[in-house]
Amino acid sequence: MNRIVRSVSQVMLLSVLLVVVRAVPTSATLGWLPISPEDLALKDNPKEPGADAMILYRESEVDARQANVSGDAVREYVRIKIFTQAGTKQGHIEIPYNKSWETIPYVSGRTILPDGTIKDFDGKVLDSTIVKTGGIKYFAKAFTLPDVQPGCIVEYKYDRQSRPGWVHDEGWVLSSDLYTREAHFTYYPNDVFSRSGFSARYRSYLLPKDAQMKQSANDSYSMAVNDVPAIVEEPLMPPRVAIEPTVEFYYIEPSDPDPGQSKEKYWGYFAKKWDSEIEHFDGKKDALNQEISKIVSPSDSPEAKLRKIYDRVEQIRNLSMEDYKGKTEQKAEELKADGNAADVLERGYATGHRVNLTFIGLARAAGFQATELYLAPRNAFIFMPDRNDRSEIEAEIVWVKAGSQEYYLDPSARYYPFGVLPWFETESGGVRVDGHTAAFVTTPNPQFSQATIARMADLTVHQDGSITGNIQIDFAGLEGAMERESNRKEDETGRTKNLEDEIKTWLPIGSDFEITKITNWDDIEQPLHVEATLKLPTYGSAAARSLLLPLDPFQATQAGFFSKQSRQNAIYFPYPYQEIDDVTVHAPAEYDTGGLPKPQKIDLGAALYEINATGQGNTVKVKRQLAIKGILFGKENYPTFRAFFGAVRTSDNAQMVLQYKQAGQLN
Question: Is pLDDT above 80 for 167?
Fold first, then answer.
């Protein structure tokens, strides 16, 4: 079941401290809870009628007491009631885990049939790879419980064991894809951390009204909840972290300020600390001034200077974008620690954080006001400065002011053009370092023009309705950056295949599509340019000496996200974007434009669609634009967006008519 592991506390536990080793119960030593006749006879969920299944009981225990000896441990127990045939999929269990730092040493399960017969799981637990939304892959322990059928109860338990020597920021996700009737949670903080002056704290989001955190005499935390609604998985929904009831535990270092003081004092402490780091790292002014003299010219405009500095810093090898290297690998490669910006410029490599600090040093040397902006990225947190929680700060960018113009830049985001941020760093709250004070800011919402896919097709239609031709596609701005970043570890063959697979989803089924050329892969300021050939054996249809073809060969994939009548979640587009199509269709010489659909335009303010077809002789030109201009929309807007994308699909598929010329003469 769900569990939070936000980050790893990068403080090794002190082995010199006295450690008291306890015998901690594991799932293997704990028996199954009794099953009531009422639960066995239950036919439906009275709180969510019509559900396929529900969680009757869940217990989750996180024990970090022995993290320095054996690693922190998690024990999970889940009992599920199956109501329908569709619900029987709950008998297949997948437990995601990170192979690099944890194991699943124990798994057990059983099925209780409607008549009370118990069938224990005695099969194999397999290692598998599961793919979540967005193509993210996880390793998982997978197994299937026996004879799962409607009316039965399935239950399973497992242990999760982290590697020793580290304490993780752990937590609980109270909800799941199923309604939860009853759940109990326990957290045991790390003893050694506590004796070393670290303080265990927690933050919570969206908890049910009856949820009450209790702290026991042994410093453990516990919570019981009832009737937690299911999270309905839907396309284009907000990140689950924004809608799931969650409790997260973290540790405050002894030197950290008291979170109980005012936000100005709390964040001012860190602003002073961060400002000192910038000043120290960029302290060798002569080296920075000398480098600036090589990069910019006095006659350059302010933005031209910033662009040249950005280009220079982008040449620095970003170690944070590479796979982790152990000490042996670093030594073999002769990588040295970068003590200041001069070292980075001389050696040509640094971590992402130091790349940004180097940019700040160069920007200041060029006469600009520049500083660090620490963010709570919106794919993970909603920043609330009053909460005084530094652990929410998981990203950083650079803020620069040149005259009256403000710039938000992230040089450490290697594949992003000047002025373009990763989507999760836009519209995100954070702290800007203003000397020894903190300014609370929200980064700008990007313009839809900063994420553009422009598609140009030159196609020839044949008398049998098939087409052949060439396609050119430009991934500009954010779209190009994300393609480059997601394929950065691929060779030319790998990224060509990945791009082909993506583009084929835009084309009609049966398309023969092949990329012939990819350019601008390393020039991040230019759109990523793709050239390809296309063959469609059955695109158009012949009827009464006419050819009928859809207006646009590119499919509007968004319509499938709005196929259902109703909606449970808000609508969340990760970033504004636009698609621009320019399609030319050449008919055989003996055909002429017979009839074209009328131009269409739908402008919702938040979304725009236009399509227009013009014909001359045997050639038709189609211009199309689809733009999404916002990010978050309430679920009450779902009917409007559903109608919008339905109209988009209808207009895209409207038929152009190519008429056989002699037909008119015969009439």
Answer: no
Q: Examine the domain organization and report whether 239 and 289 are in the same domain.
A: no
Sign of the CA dihedral with 421 first, then 422, 424, and 430 last: negative
Quick one: tokens of 56?
Answer: 């009757």
Distances (CA, A) of 139 to 93, 101, 102, 125, 488: 13, 12, 11, 13, 21
- Dihedral sign for Cα atoms in the order 376, 131, 179, 632: positive
What is the C-alpha to C-alpha distance for residues 594 and 587, in angstroms, rounded to an integer?
A: 11
Return the SS3 of 646: helix
Structure tokens at 632: 């978050």
Q: Give the CATH number, domain containing residue 625.
A: 2.60.120.1130
DSSP state for residue 1 in the 8-state scheme: -
Angle of helix 285-295 relative to helix 352-365, nearest 10 degrees? 80
Neighbour count for residue 625 (Cβ, 10 Å): 17
Question: From CA 580, how far away is CA 557, in angstroms rounded?
Answer: 14
- Mean pLDDT of all residues in 354-372: 96
In this structure, of 168-177, 575-584, 629-638, the range with the lowest mean pLDDT score is 168-177
333 has a pLDDT exceeding 80 = no
Q: What are the structure tokens assigned to 595, written together?
A: 């009839």
CATH number of 110's domain: 2.60.40.3140
> First CA to last CA across the chain, in angstroms?
72
CATH classification of the domain holding 355: 3.10.620.30
